[in-house]
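Retro notes, structure queue

What went well: the backlog is down to a handful. What didn't: a couple of records were mislabeled last round, so from now on we paste the full input next to the output in the thread. Example, using Bifunctional diguanylate cyclase/phosphodiesterase from Rhodovulum visakhapatnamense:
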Amino acid sequence: HAKTQGLQRLVIFDDEMERTDHSNRKIERSLRESLTTDGHFFVEYQPIVSASDPSKLIRVEALARWRDDSGDIVSPSEFIGIAEVSNLIVPLGWKILDIVCLDLARNPGISASVNVSAIQLMSPSFASSLTTRVLRSGVEPERIELEITETVALQDTEVVVDQVRRLVAAGFSVALDDFGTGYSSVGYIRKIPFSTLKIDKSFAIGGIGGGENEALIEGIVSLSHALGVEVVAEGVERVEDFIKLNQIGCDYIQGFLVGRPTSLEVALDGISKSCLELAMQS
Ligand code: C2E
Ligand code: MG
Ligand code: MG
Ligand code: MG
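Corresponding output:
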């Protein structure tokens, strides 16, 4: 009896997998189609501010947005993974980079960070293509930080380390994104010349509280500083967490409290009221 139940469950699971697979293929087709025409992809920007002075904008993070055929905005969590397994992340990545470069060229005082996928970094010509593209747009590489999320794919590739070193030599800086989840390892920090470490938003989203979570953040901050790496806390939603992160010594803050991802114009002068009040107090 138990066996039959197990089998039934297996069959149901299989159906589900088939449905997911079908829907993934649909998204892939639609992505491919959207990439051939203009206007489907755009970028929202989220402010990153100084933890000791919330009115001081450090840079903005560029976040990809997709308007599909029905006009709905699809979130990156639904399409980046599919773009990666289908290699569509390569043309998509160039599209996003071009938009960011145009925006930076129009706004000389601003710096931005751009997410780069491990798949993009696995191409031996990536660093030189990116450098050429950015220079051609008139933007100085020093104004762009590339955010890399550690994955299994990243970990054991000499090509990736080589590409990152070339990018740093060209003037770009590099951030390790989503630290504290997945595959993040300290060994990796030694291999790649990161300027910035971004503590994953899961640490801050529910509130930092005291105890273990806070102790972990403190440890990450002191480890980073010992290595000459600056720290951004992501996902900061509460004033008390902002204050605590500054006390801990975290350098920069990003999160809905400071500002949600939005158009560049709004992001540039749109630091939230609660943050400005915080700035007055400090
Ligand atoms: P990420 O690089 O870690 O970007 C930060 C994500 O956290 C964004 O989600 C942002 O909206 C969200 N976030 C920021 N502050 C808060 C907060 O206070 N609370 C909560 N609940 N969330 C917050 P988004 O825009 O949905 O992007 C998700 C992920 O998709 C990004 O995570 C990044 O890994 C990937 N992604 C986005 N754009 C690109 C891109 O152009 N290229 C690549 N390769 N990946 C991208
Ligand atoms: Mg990021
Ligand atoms: Mg990322
Ligand atoms: Mg992140």
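Agreed that this is the format going forward. Reviewer comment attached to the example: The first helix runs from residue 2 to 36.
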